[in-house]
Design a protein that fits this description.
It contains ten helices and seven strands. It has a seven-stranded mixed beta sheet, sandwiched between helices. Helix 2 crosses helix 3, helix 4 runs antiparallel to helix 5 and helix 4 packs antiparallel against helix 7. The longest helix has 14 residues. The protein is globular.
Length: 250
């Protein structure tokens, strides 16, 4: 089965949106709606998630990179702007390393792969959660302390995990997110070789991937750190995320 993308908008620029582990393209609803006013937007379901549940070997980052780059090529899209959150941020960065001529800019929200530390126990609980109460309890640890978990976010995830095989696939993927409590790291020297504009956004209250992973970025990367904000930047600071994406794609 091929990879799924929700397509909206039209314009000379194409923006590719990649959600984090356990989410779907619905993560980007508000951001995609804004960007689609004057851009072509593709919000993907990562392999093993949502409409891309049955992509073979889902869960491996290289499989996602290959599937998305292949889909972009099949659509005839030679240049796109990449935006990724968490796992999707790692995949967006790896796409830029694999095919730098196709990626015009990168906006990475608390991306995976920028340091060894990862809260694997929290992600395992999140993967196993199916009922609204359990999903909300996991998300409470992903949002900033004073930022409420939106009811709609919980409802979207509950619906997604009712699909046969989805919960089991997330548990399977979660088991490969870290080895001995550490995630795989994208070498900084490789990131430093990227020539497109790169913005990295992080929240000071991130309890999935610590904010210090935004430190010591390559010199030409632009870092934006948000106070009183957790891991779920697309929900917690939607307007700022939109503004920074728009800055970057210009």
């Amino acid at each position: 089965m091929g990879i799924f993308a929700a397509e909206s908008g039209a314009g000379a620029r194409t923006v590719v949106l990649l959600h984090g582990f356990g989410g779907t393209h619905r993560t980007w609803d508000a951001i995609a709606a804004d960007l689609a006013a004057d851009n072509h937007v593709l919000a993907y379901d990562l392999p093993g998630h949502g409409g891309s549940l049955d992509v073979p070997d889902a869960g491996l980052a290289k499989i996602a990179v290959r599937a998305i780059l292949g889909d972009l090529a099949a659509r005839g899209l030679e240049r796109v702007h990449g935006v990724g959150h968490s796992m999707g941020g790692a995949i967006a960065a790896m796409m830029a390393l694999a095919d730098p001529g196709r990626i015009a800019s990168l906006t990475l929200l608390a991306p995976g792969g920028f340091g060894e530390e990862i809260n694997g126990r929290l992600l395992a609980r999140y993967a196993a959660a199916r009922e609204a109460g359990d999903i909300r309890a996991a998300l409470e640890n992903m949002y900033g302390w004073n930022n409420p978990v939106p009811d709609e976010a919980v409802e979207v995830l509950v619906a997604a995990r009712q699909v046969p095989g989805q919960a089991e696939k997330l548990i399977e993927i979660s088991q490969g997110l870290a080895r001995d409590g550490k995630q795989g790291v994208i070498p900084r020297d490789r990131l430093a070789g990227l020539t497109m504009p790169v913005k990295v956004l992080w929240g000071t209250q991130d309890r999935v991937l610590p904010t210090r992973q935004a430190h010591r970025l390559p010199p030409l990367f632009a870092a934006h750190v948000f106070e009183d904000t957790g891991h779920m930047l697309p929900d917690e600071c939607t307007g700022d995320v939109i503004r920074l994406i728009r800055q970057n794609i210009r």
